[in-house]
Every structure is written in C-alpha cells, then in structure tokens.
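The data are quoted verbatim for reference:
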Amino acid sequence: MIPHAFLLTIVLPVGVEVDGQTHTECEIGPITMAGAMVADVEAAEPPPAGLDEETWRGMCRAARNIRRLGTLPPETFTGRWLLEMAEADGTAIFEAAAGVRARANSFRKADGGPAGGAVSGGEGDGLDRGGAAPDA
C-alpha cells in the first residue's frame, strides 16, 4: 500500500463528465509496480497519430498516477483516456504527479541517501509539460 503521505488530492479545473455527472476531485499518487506494468502493456500498442513512442509511453504512465477521480473506476484511466481530457486538467495532473514524486524523494535517511531508493519515472518520457513530470 502507498503511504497516505504520498497521495495528493486536487480539484481539476474543468473536470470529466460521465453520464451527466462532472467529476473534479482527483487523487494522485506514485505509480505502483502493477500500474507500471499495465502502463507498459498499453504503451506497447501503436501510439495515436502525432505522438512518438516516448511521448505515448509517458501518457500511459501519467494515467496510472490517478488513484481516484470522482466515482470513476480505476480501469478508466488509460493513456488514450488522458488524451481526451481538457488540457488544463492534464496539466493539473502532471503538476500534482511531480509534487508527489518530490514529496516521496524528500523522505531520505539521515545520512542523505535515499530511503529505500529514490522515486523516479518522469524523466526522459518525451513530454513537454513546462517542467512538470507525469508520474511518481
């Protein structure tokens, strides 16, 4: 289980409408090992037109940072689904994911080394988010 200290709840500026209900409250957390594997399987599919493979992989992994969005089931959150979101919502998710990763990386041993290893995964994903990383 991911410690609660690594989860961040945000409110999406636009939200996602499903069956007439707009969902805006979103919980972001680090990608689990299972989530990373699911993202990698999705990313193995051909990327949508206009995206290179590295950007597509980053989108798939970014979707796995979403722990909860309203009452939508977790299997909803895929790279293709994320591409259909409002840009402002995607930016909010990427920024929150960067915050989660920074929070996780701030938990260090007294000797300055990583506590169980640094959390990473956003570097080199090919996405230009103005400095925000897609996954923690």
Remarks:
- The CA atoms of residues 33 and 39 lie 10 Å apart.
- The chain has four helices and three strands.
- The beta strands are 8-18, 21-28, 66-69.
